[in-house]
Design goal:
alpha+beta, 4 helices
């Protein structure tokens, strides 16, 4: 055995041993590179921890962020006729009674409204009518105070089953002496009108029975 093979495993020459070590190092380097590429390819990013799988999803809670600015979805059909046709005579506002259904409703300040049977299509209804308790000589309380007072007087008369059908679309208009001149004249009548913001044609009564 010559000097090149003496002292090496199984008689492998020093030159062959050096080649073997070099090849082994190269193979290890290639394997490391392949593993690094695999970690950075589809299925993961190198150096980035996988997202936790516990928390809201495991607790059965929604994992998306709700859109708090989304408009309410009422699911209501379009109004059958673009412009309701008046078929009956208009009644002066001071002759209206609670429960009267109004075929059209231009505004809460109209002088008269056509009244129809509530089984027929109508746009609004007189929810309630009453007299404010303040005496004739009382000072004008202001519209914010009257708004609160008349709203509290109207609310108990709403049919909440009807309200549940129309949901956020329900509107209530309050009519009362809202200027100091009207108030000084002794007027104390108030009216509550209920309708829908989308001006749907309605049937049935919004008044609690």
């Amino acid at each position: 055995m010559d000097d090149e093979t003496r002292g090496t495993p199984e008689g492998l020459s020093r030159r062959g041993w050096g080649v073997l070590v070099g090849v082994t190092v190269a193979v290890v380097f290639v394997l490391v590179a392949v593993l690094a590429l695999a970690a950075g390819g589809p299925g993961g990013k190198a150096g980035v921890a996988a997202p936790a799988t516990t928390g809201a999803a495991d607790a059965g809670l929604p994992t998306h962020t709700p859109d708090v600015y989304a408009a309410p979805r009422l699911g209501l059909p379009p109004r059958p006729t673009p412009t309701p046709v008046v078929t009956g005579p208009a009644q002066p506002v001071d002759t209206l009674q609670a429960g009267d259904c109004l075929q059209v409703y231009p505004s809460k300040t109209a002088d008269a409204y056509p009244v129809v049977d509530c089984a027929s299509s109508h746009i609004a209804q007189v929810l309630w009518r009453g007299q404010l308790p303040q005496p004739a000589g009382a000072s004008f309380p202001g519209t914010p105070s009257l708004d609160t007072q008349v709203s509290d007087l109207c609310e108990p008369h709403l049919n909440w089953h009807w309200v549940a059908v129309w949901n956020e679309d329900v509107q209530v208009d309050l009519r009362y002496p809202d200027t100091s001149d009207q108030w000084a004249s002794g007027s104390r009548s108030y009216y509550c009108f209920v309708y829908t913001f989308s001006r749907h044609e309605l049937t049935g009564s919004a008044v609690a029975g």
